[in-house]
Design goal:
Layout lengths: L35 H11 L13 E4 L9 E5 L15 E6 H5 L6 E5 L15 E5 L9 E6 L2 E10 L6 E5 L8 E2 L6 E10 L5
Length: 203
């Protein structure tokens, strides 16, 4: 007498689904394609957890290509502006500012990277903020950098602890809802570039 065992594949399984970010089972839902980015941003801003991870396989990187035929000289006021009584700035405009020269130190090594998490919110970096990144600058303690950890990207503040020999490097999140990143033995970390400006839209 023989017995047969029925093997079933597929279907719902208890506690299935990706748990990496929220540490709990997930469900698939259908949403309008035009609302995907809005829903992702809402979740990051409204779901509270101390287990957020924001190391990503891909980031949006755009090369900087100034057009030499389009140079805009913007009037530069020589007086500092206080957030109080308005000043007649028109009387203090003495020179012009070329934003290409002001923002870009090394054209061939400069890129714009769009932030895709809220881990640096307290440093003024929000989701989709365009960050100017210079890959030619040597990173120093306190710089905000784009780092690659085991071939995944993250934006963090570079911290160097000189109490250790050799000095211990770690990455600080500027948002209490996110974890700092401590480089473990065997992990590979590459400093991809140094963030020099945040081109945050104010309106």
């Amino acid at each position: 007498m023989s017995t047969s065992k029925k093997v079933e594949h597929g279907g719902a399984r208890a506690n299935s689904g990706r748990k990496a970010q929220f540490q709990e089972p997930t469900k698939v839902i259908r949403v309008p394609e035009s609302q995907v980015d809005f829903i992702k941003k809402w979740l990051l801003q409204n779901v509270k957890t101390n287990d957020f991870t924001d190391v990503h396989h891909n980031i949006k990187i755009y090369p900087v290509q100034p057009d030499p035929n389009k140079i805009y000289h913007i009037p530069l006021a020589t007086e500092r502006v206080a957030a109080g009584v308005p000043l007649p700035l028109q009387d203090h405009i003495e020179q012009a500012l070329d934003l290409n020269q002001y923002l870009i130190r090394n054209e061939n090594a400069t890129f714009i990277v769009k932030a895709n998490s809220l881990s640096m919110l307290d440093a003024g970096i929000d989701i989709d903020d365009p960050l100017i990144v210079d890959r030619s600058l040597p990173a120093k303690a306190g710089d905000i950098i784009i780092a690659m950890i085991d071939n995944e990207f993250t934006v963090k503040r570079l911290m160097i602890d000189h109490h250790f020999e050799p000095p211990k490097i770690w990455l600080k999140a500027e948002n209490s809802e996110f974890q700092n990143i401590y480089i473990e033995e065997g992990q590979e970390m590459i400093i991809w570039g140094v963030v020099t400006y945040n081109l945050k839209r104010m309106r």
